[in-house]
Amino acid sequence: MINSFDFYNFDIIENKELYLRSTSTTGQYIITNSKYIPQKLYFLFVGSGCSSVCSYCAGNAYYFSSVGIRKPIFRDTKVIVKDILRLQSMGVDILYVEFDPKPFSEKFYNELFNELKSVRRKLELGLHFGVWAGRLPSEKMIESISNIFPREMA
Ligand code: SF4
Description:
- The protein is an alpha/beta fold.
- It has one domain (about 15-45, about 75-150).
- Helices cover about 30% and strands about 10% of the residues.
- The chain has 5 helices and 5 strands.
- It has a 3-stranded parallel beta sheet with strand order 1-4-5, with no helix packed on it. Strands 2-3 form a two-stranded antiparallel ribbon.
- α3 crosses α4 (about 105-115) and α4 (about 105-115) packs parallel to α5.
- It starts with 15 loop residues before the first helix and ends in a 6-residue tail after the last helix.
């Protein structure tokens, strides 16, 4: 079901330009030890739901259970890869992923990174990966991120 949703059909949004201007701004934030200053950010939706109830999180189990989602569900990795290329073609130069549900699935992210290897040479964007409630990603996962999203870091 989640794979049938189109998360990036901005044409159906009234005041699309205003919406995109206000949601994709980076504020030109600085990345430590990098010359790369991202200009346009957008959210990469990789899944929904969680079994925890962190009070500061709008994606917690309390809210999602009201729409029948009681544990994390992940989107198809092939669909996500298409969305990444779509966002890049819209001028996005940094993706924001914030999905560290409990239970966390490093297996899912490894599958996504494997899928991304086939388009690795086409990718010219960075990735901001937010981790709020769980443990830090493994060294292997951090390495995969830096190999696949290689914005200049020096
Ligand atoms: S574990 Fe992550 S996704 Fe789940 S409620 Fe807490 S912050 Fe939200």
